[in-house]
Amino acid sequence: MTDPIADYLTRLRNAIMAKHRIVEIPASNIKKEITKILFDKGYILNYKFEEVGPQGNIKIALKYNPETKNSAIKGIERISTPGLRKYVGNDNLPRVINGLGIAIVSTSHGVMTDKEARSKKIGGEVLCYVY
């Protein structure tokens, strides 16, 4: 696999389109950090890290609106790819849908949202947009 983050995002997107309640994804440290951010910002219901085998798994409970059955995640897209990395400075951090969505940024201080990076005045690699 050349791009594990794109695989993570695609598994989430496919599970949402199929209206699954739980999705299981192979774990890595950066995927765990992205999962924590999605939980903190309210895009997923819950998550659990399982230490199974050499790599482990992440179990994610997806969040849906009980009345309309729509997912909390409307769109999730990869920005920086292994073939074309997208780095930004603190003054050029993207705003997703005028601040309604989040951009997940990998910085020298760890993985965080665009708003946190803007407040700490640090830039980094833009991993994905979630809205």
How are the SSEs placed, and which strands pair?
Elements: H1 4-17, E1 22-26, H2 29-40, E2 44-50, E3 57-62, E4 76-78, E5 87-88, E6 102-107, E7 110-113, H3 114-120, E8 124-130
Antiparallel strand pairs: 1-3, 2-3, 4-8, 5-8, 6-7, 6-8
Summarize this entry quickly.
This protein has 131 residues and is an alpha+beta fold. The protein has 3 helices and 8 strands, in the order αβαββββββαβ. β6 (102-107) and β7 (110-113) form a beta hairpin.
List its traits.
single chain, three-stranded antiparallel sheet, five-stranded antiparallel sheet, 131 residues
Distance between the termini: 26 Å
Biggest sheet: strands, sense, closure?
5 strands, antiparallel
Helices and strands, in N-to-C order?
Answer: HEHEEEEEEHE
The whole-number mean of residue pLDDT values reads 95
Estimate what percentage of residues fall within beta strands: 25-35%
What is the radius of gyration computed over CA atoms, rounded to a whole number of angstroms? Answer: 15 Å
Instruction: Count the beta strands.
Output: 8
Helix content: 25-40%
Shape: globular
Unreliable residue stretches: none
* Class derived from helix and strand content: alpha+beta
Structure annotation, total helices: 3
So what's the oligomer here? single chain
Can you tell me about this structure?
Helix content is 25%, strand content 31%. The chain has three helices and eight strands. It has helices at residues 4-17, 29-40, 114-120; strands at 22-26, 44-50, 57-62, 76-78, 87-88, 102-107, 110-113, 124-130. The radius of gyration is 15 Å and the shape is globular. It starts with a helix and ends with a strand. The model has no long low-confidence stretch (mean pLDDT 95).
